[in-house]
Amino acid sequence: NNMNRILVLICIAILAASCVEHDDFPGKRIRVRFDCSVPATRSGIPDDRSVNSLDILFFRAEDGAFDAYTRVENDRADMDITAGIDMRYYVMANFPKGLFEGISNESEYLRTVLSLSDIDGSMPMSCSGSGKFNSDQALEVNMHRLLCRIELNEISTEFMRRYDNWTDVTLDAVYLINVNGTILMSGAYGNDGLWFNKSGHDPDMEAQLSGLIHSYSGRHITDVDGTEDSFCFFCMPNPTDNSINWENTPYWSPRNTRLV
Hints:
- The protein is mainly beta.
- It is 10% helix and 39% strand.
- It is built from two helices and 17 strands.
- The strands form six sheets. A five-stranded antiparallel β-sheet has the order 3-2-5-7-9, with no helix packed on it. Strands 4-1-8 form a three-stranded mixed β-sheet, with no helix packed on it.
- Strand 2 and strand 3 form a beta hairpin.
- It is elongated.
- The termini are far apart.
């Protein structure tokens, strides 16, 4: 009869609705693929754009709880995450292996410190994003470089008296001083306890941070021919207040990075 048909239709509708809710129920695992894009720079240095490894972390937006982590020695990665939940994700390229292992929540990740002495020569990069993912999908992310590049193109003499311009000058080395040594994953730079080449070259750090000094091995230089030697230094951004005259302080404190 009509009543039985109505009951059957209601049961079918309830069953269909329950199936839809089950498919979207939070807790289902889906797969996300990451492909990295790195913008070019004017220098065109290949290493600036190389992605040799990826660390990717997902945290639940509601409480910062850990959801998923993967590391691959590649420029793309696949990983499984929980579907139907608002997430925040962080992608790091060319970071030291093991730096993010064992992290249990987002706050712990944001307190993680990257040291300049831990960088192996590849440009560290990162990006972040958020969203709710209900099905398998691919994401293309734009990576941002974390180091500053200081490019040295030419060195020449500039004496006040013209005949001194032909004076033979020996060039031993060029280096950076007052170099900030850390960056936090929260985006904060600087740690008063970790600075390199404080006010001068520190020979004890040269083996660990060879990228802060460029040797010319006693090359002779005059203003007539100059010395063209394109070289790039890489260092972390310096958070120092540029308005302060640090030269008048009686003791060393964090100050502007300089090329010497």
